[in-house]
Write a structure and sequence with these properties.
Layout lengths: L18 E8 L3 E11 L2 E4 L15 E6 L5 E3 L7 E4 L4 E5 L24 E9 L5 E2 L4 E2 L2 E8 L8 E5 L13 E2 L16 E4 L2 E9 L7 E6 H7 L4 H10 L70 H8 L6 E5 L5 H12 L4 E3 L6 H5 L2 H4 L5 E5 L14 H8 L5 E8 H9 L6 H9 L1 E4 L7 H10 L10 H5 L2 H14 L1 H15 L6 E2 H15 L7 H12 L11 E6 L3 E6 L1 H7 L11 H9 L3 H13 L3 H13 L3 H14 L5 H13 L3 H14 L5 H13 L3 H13 L6 H13 L11
Parallel strand pairs: 17-20, 17-21, 18-19, 19-20
Antiparallel strand pairs: 1-2, 1-4, 2-3, 3-7, 4-5, 6-7, 8-11, 9-10, 11-12, 12-16, 13-15, 14-15, 15-16, 22-24, 23-24
Helix pairs in contact: 12-13, 13-14, 13-15, 13-16, 14-15, 18-19, 19-20, 20-21, 20-22, 21-22, 22-23, 23-24, 24-25
Length: about 750
């Protein structure tokens, strides 16, 4: 946004009483319908081609305007003198002599758009008379209301704006390029020309054309700042600007834009040529989480890595049938059974033309609200490989986030994979802190996937597709990923090479504490050194010796392409980072034997290196693993750094999980989150004060619930109703009824706690 000029922040709707149809009477009894706007009681702004015969350019036999709100009409008396037009810009102002409405209406506030930098004008709106609103039976044309987005730099070269309307795409498919001012033929957007486009209550420009190549619901708009600029050298434009009363260019206020957050920080995979979301048809499973093998990589997908159909329990058939834009589809199975490949092949079969968003952990809420998704009707697949990464982050997947995805204009399919051991950990956790996680898991369409080794037909198909593989009781994905060999190397190192084992185990436990980022080599070196000193003090664990062990851990197995116990990830500053091979993480979580607890020092090491969001994730992971002291300590770290979600979790932990409960501290953290505007904290604070505090502080509970209810929290509405009806002295039944009714109207239900 430029440093000079006024930034606008008004938000008002378009008054329908100022929207008019511009009707040109043509030879042969024909009519041509366009749109217009009363910029004054006797002035109508429209497109120039709406004021003449569009096909011939001739002056019409008659020109009149009809008001949308009541059908009142007025006529242009002199079709030459009373029509001020600039053909070069396709804008006209019509003067009316006699009008059946208030003749001295105030003019709109005209604004300019900063085309010098990127930005978005969200919820731009217009009302007009497009052809798709024509009723052929009653021979009537009705108004249509558009709400769309303008990207600031689009069409900057020609002085126009481009408005995209994401919800009305179906009305304009397959139409040839045409002006939006067509009469009864051509584009279904014909007749919309002349409509005035507003943003936050301020006028930006006039609709003049529709070009389907720019989107089936994209219309071009002549901007007022361009009219004013053109008027400096063009006499016709000057007359239009003067008729409108356009102020000088430097006095036009700036339309306030919302910066567009780059997709590159929100998703892990982008189309390299466009910087946009990629289409499914252009992707391969290896870019989306499938482990590369000697048979297939992202550079050779489809050449030597045939997909083996998952026929047991009709997994492929059921999975593809479930990929509908209704609820999340979750594929659950042990590590290295082919979950990612199976999910990808199903998506590729059903949604090959859709765009795909593979969110970066911690970005879900921002991605769901991103204009690329919310202003587009493109079909979309949201890809959540290893779902647990998205359930324990600072911006976790919640039912509300899923709703944001599912209610965007276009069809949206959410598909996720999850290790069975991780699912079991998340399921086992109880309490308010993991309520959203349970709701997400319970609301998903879950399909279980087992190893090909568990089904003779699948294993036979796997052997036929990969005849040189010695399966030896292992499934196909395990063999292709060298999982048995890598697990054996990890297990053997416990006695044969303690330095190597300490390095691998440190990386495994780093991941198990829910630190989703790779462990940097300096941290791996330091933590491994401490582990070895504690467990093997007699060993000469020098930095050089541990560095050699790290090098061994990241070296691929002999004969393999890249199968290693530690996967190398380049980090900024030419530092290597490492991820433990996920089969080893699953093994320590109990997939192949007895689970190994996360050591206390691993939690300490993670917290020592955690930022605010990391600490929040560690708290949730510790809670899921029933380590309440670590969960509280990590939540305190995040809450003290200002993380509102951690404040709420800390209140829950201290009031419901701590022994004995620390209600004063819980109240203090709830209050801090509530004062930051979090309605969930307000609701929980009310529950604490009404049901756990001794004696109950009902006035304060009521006050917090009222604040949350007024902000739209249905749980608080229900709790208020119950409080006022059953515990307030004397009962306030009228208010109780009112709050119950508001909760019902909002689709609410009884919440946990006070109203449970």
């Amino acid at each position: 946004m430029p440093e000079t000029g006024l930034v606008l922040a008004v938000d008002t709707g378009i008054p329908r009483a100022r929207v008019v149809a511009v009707v040109a009477d043509l030879p042969g009894g024909r009519e041509q319908v366009g749109s217009g706007y009363l910029v004054g009681g006797r002035l109508v702004l429209t497109a120039a081609h709406c004021a003449r015969d569009k096909k011939t350019g001739a002056v019409p036999l008659g020109l009149r305007v009809i008001r949308a709100s009541d059908g009142a009409a007025a006529e242009v008396m002199d079709l030459v003198a009373d029509v001020v037009t600039t053909s070069a810009l396709d804008v006209a102002v019509l003067r009316l002599t006699t009008v059946p409405w208030e003749p001295d209406l105030p003019g709109p506030v005209f604004a300019r758009v900063d085309r010098g930098r990127s930005g978005m004008l969200i919820d731009c709106c217009a009302i007009g008379y497009p052809l798709f609103q024509r009723d052929p039976i009653q021979r009537a044309r009705r108004t249509a209301e558009l709400h769309g987005t303008i990207y600031q730099t689009d069409e900057a070269e020609v002085g126009r704006l481009l408005l995209r309307e994401p919800l009305l795409t179906s009305v304009a498919h397959g139409e040839p390029p045409s002006g939006a001012g067509d009469g009864d033929g051509g584009s279904p957007w014909g007749g919309l020309s002349g409509a005035l486009v507003f943003h936050a209550g301020h006028a930006l420009g006039v609709v003049v054309e529709h070009h389907p190549r720019q989107g089936s619901a994209a219309v071009q708009v002549v901007a007022f700042d361009f009219i004013r600029e053109w008027a400096e050298t063009d006499e016709a434009a000057r007359r239009v600007a003067d008729a409108l009363g356009l102020p000088p260019l430097d006095r036009l206020p700036w339309a306030a834009a919302q910066p567009v957050e780059p997709l590159a920080g929100l998703v892990d995979v982008l189309d390299p040529g466009k910087g946009d979301l990629p289409r499914v048809r252009d992707l391969d499973p290896y870019r989306l989480g499938t482990t590369s093998s000697d048979y297939g990589t992202r550079d050779s997908y489809g050449e030597h890595d045939p997909y083996v159909p998952r026929t047991r329990c009709d997994v492929d058939i059921r999975l593809r049938a479930a990929l509908e834009p209704t609820r999340m589809v979750l594929l659950v199975g042990p590590s290295k059974v082919g979950k990612s490949r199976t999910a990808f092949e199903a998506v590729r079969a059903r949604w090959t033309h859709a765009y795909l968003a593979a969110p970066a952990p911690g970005s879900l809420r921002r991605l769901a609200a991103h204009p690329r998704l919310q202003t587009s009707s493109d079909p979309l697949v949201v890809w959540l490989d290893d779902l647990d990464r998205f359930l324990t982050t600072a911006e976790p997947l919640t039912p509300a986030v899923l709703t944001s995805f599912s209610t965007r204009p276009g069809p949206t399919v959410v598909v996720a994979t999850l290790r069975r051991e991780a699912r079991d950990l998340l399921r086992a956790a109880t309490g308010e802190l993991v309520r959203d996680t349970r709701a997400v898991l319970e609301g998903a369409t879950t399909i279980e996937l087992d190893s090909t080794a568990d089904d003779p037909e699948e294993q036979a198909a796997a052997h036929a597709a990969y005849p040189d593989q010695p399966f030896d009781g292992s499934g196909l994905a395990e063999r292709l990923g060298y999982a048995p060999q890598l697990l054996q190397a990890y297990d053997d190192s416990a006695t044969a090479n303690p330095l190597l084992h300490a390095v691998i185990r440190t990386a495994v436990d780093w991941a198990r504490t829910s630190l989703s980022r790779p462990i940097p080599e300096p941290d791996l070196l330091e933590i491994s050194s401490e582990v070895l000193w504690e467990e093997h003090p007699v060993l000469d664990a020098t930095n050089d010796a541990i560095t050699a062990a790290i090098r061994q851990a990241r070296t691929p197995l002999p004969g393999s392409r890249d199968a290693a116990t530690l996967i190398t990830v380049p980090l900024p500053g030419r530092v290597r980072g490492y991820r433990a091979y996920d089969y080893l993480i699953a093994a320590d979580d109990g997939q192949t034997g007895r689970p190994r607890p996360v050591p206390h020092r691993s939690w300490d090491d993670a917290l020592h290196r955690a930022d605010r969001d990391d600490a929040f994730a560690i708290s949730v992971a510790a809670y899921a693993r029933s380590n309440i002291p670590v969960s509280v300590r990590a939540a305190e770290r995040a809450a003290e750094a200002g993380h509102t979600g951690a404040m709420i979790n800390l209140g829950l932990l201290l009031s419901d999980q701590w022994e004995p409960p620390d209600l004063p501290s819980a109240r203090a953290w709830y209050e801090k989150a509530a004062q930051a505007g979090d309605t969930g904290a307000m609701t929980n604070l009310g529950i604490l004060l009404a049901t756990q505090w001794e004696p109950p502080d009902l006035p304060s509970a009521r006050a917090w619930w009222e604040k949350a209810a007024e902000a739209g929290d249905t749980g608080a509405m229900s709790n208020l109703g119950l409080l006022l009806a059953t515990r307030w002295e004397p009962p306030d039944l009228p208010s109780a009824r009112a709050w119950y009714e508001k909760a019902a109207e909002a689709g609410g239900h009884r919440s946990d706690g006070e109203a449970g």
